[in-house]
Amino acid sequence: xxxxxxxxxxxxxxxxxxxxxxxxxxxxxxxxxxxxxxxxxxxxxxxxxxxxxxxxxxxxxxxxxxxxxxxxxxxxxxxxxxxxxxxxxxxxxxxxxxxxxxxxxxxxxxxxxxxxxxxxxxxxxxxxxxxxxxxxxxxxxxxxxxxxxxxxxxxxxxxxxxxxxxxxxxxxxxxxxxxxxxxxxxxxxxxxxxxxxxxxxxxxxxxxxxxxxxxxxxxxxxxxxxxxxxxxxxxxxxxxxxxxxxxxxxxxxxxxxxxxxxxxxxxxxxxxxxxxxxxxxxxxxxxxxxxxxxxxxxxxxxxxxxxxxxxxxxxxxxxxxxxxxxxxxxxxxxxxxxxxxxxxxxxxxxxxxxxxxxxxxxxxxxxxxxxxxxxxxxxxxxxxxxxxxxxxxxxxxxxxxxxxxxxxxxxxxxxxxxxxxxxxxxxxxxxxxxxxxxxxxxxxxxxxxxxxxxxxxxxxxxxxxxxxxxxxxxxxxxxxxxxxxxxxxxxxxxxxxxxxxxxxxxxxxxxxxxx
Length: 515
Prior knowledge:
Elements: E1 18-24, E2 32-39, H1 40-43, H2 47-57, E3 63-65, H3 75-83, E4 87-92, H4 100-115, E5 121-126, H5 131-135, H6 140-152, H7 156-169, E6 175-176, H8 185-205, H9 213-224, E7 231-236, H10 243-254, E8 260-264, H11 267-270, H12 278-289, H13 299-310, E9 315-322, H14 325-332, E10 349-354, H15 358-362, E11 366-368, H16 375-387, H17 394-407, H18 411-422, H19 428-440, H20 446-449, H21 451-455, H22 459-472, H23 477-481, H24 487-499, E12 504-505, E13 511-512
Parallel strand pairs: 2-4, 4-5, 5-6, 7-10, 7-11, 8-9, 9-10
Antiparallel strand pairs: 1-2, 1-3, 12-13
Helix pairs in contact: 2-8, 4-7, 6-7, 9-10, 12-13, 16-17, 16-18, 17-19, 22-24
């Protein structure tokens, strides 16, 4: 999904001031997706320009302020851009700490992260410095702060504050030009852009890991395994239990540790198409080999290509919604004719989600079974979608608790029910009628209860919903709009279905539905 840039005037650089990049998701206003803080005269002419270019190539349109702060302009305005960003990145060069503005930005990014750890990311990039230069009192950054103290008259309290800020940034998982990219700036830019793309896709997909933190940790522990081994974990459970949300969150957490990553969505549905599992095979090969337009004509050719092109690379892979053993054989090897250790490198991690545990058992894999949300978590997730920012009043809290009881702890049901109640009038009598509909269907499966949300759609929305469900799963929005004569009405309907959580877009911006 393209992110459109926001134009701002260029302002004159104050000596030692930082430059910054911010990318906007809305084409105007200040809701930035990304904020980069860097020392202009250290990095602007090479690394930052390379990073800016690749951001544009990834369709992440970026605002590039190449000249810094104007004298007299309020620093609060610039820091406001940072506060509105999902990702805050500091490019740490040898003279970064010699800039008062850079230190101020570093302090602000930590403050923002502490206020909202679930939705704000800090990513440090160590160019010609190492984490020890920042963490240790004898490091070059700490020496720079001492020089800065004398130069700009920092008092003792400010000086100690900035020292603590740098000590806090040092241990944060980030990127090092030397250790992660072997000194190759182009490779480092690619690694960073992969990470940013993953984060922004997660934000666009509306992943809300409420109540699944402990379950994420359970799977992460199982993925540790042997350091030099290939660690594979299956997540098995019924539809709507949160398997994909767990896998996607872990994928986002770990992706910065891997050069080769792939997230293959909705394999069960893809396998129903005329070329079956060949499409997921082709995507997996394309993601790992970085080749475009990969075509696989038979499953056996796909297996051979995976073995040949992967070359025992260390990979992070998610295979979402596997349905049978043959699909798993075609993607990770059957351990008889194609052994995993001949395909994937040491340290590789693979997550498989499925409703059917048989393929996982056949491959002898460890299985994690997600649990339904507990009541407090269920209420929080429902209210997030039903009331957005404002918490429910006492009048609606009781009704919300009854809706949560009907949902039975299923994240999908809570999300869909919340979106449904958010779209109707906030009148007690109206809510009671809708609650009655849910309760009358309480003996049926949750997915049948969700039909109430479908019944509340307008005619055009129903038609688009059925068209997507029957014919367009896996298609991009741009491709699908040619399916309907009235593109504008269809686009509005798609937006409404997304808002009601009846339709989602995967990491490749293609239609997906829970089924």
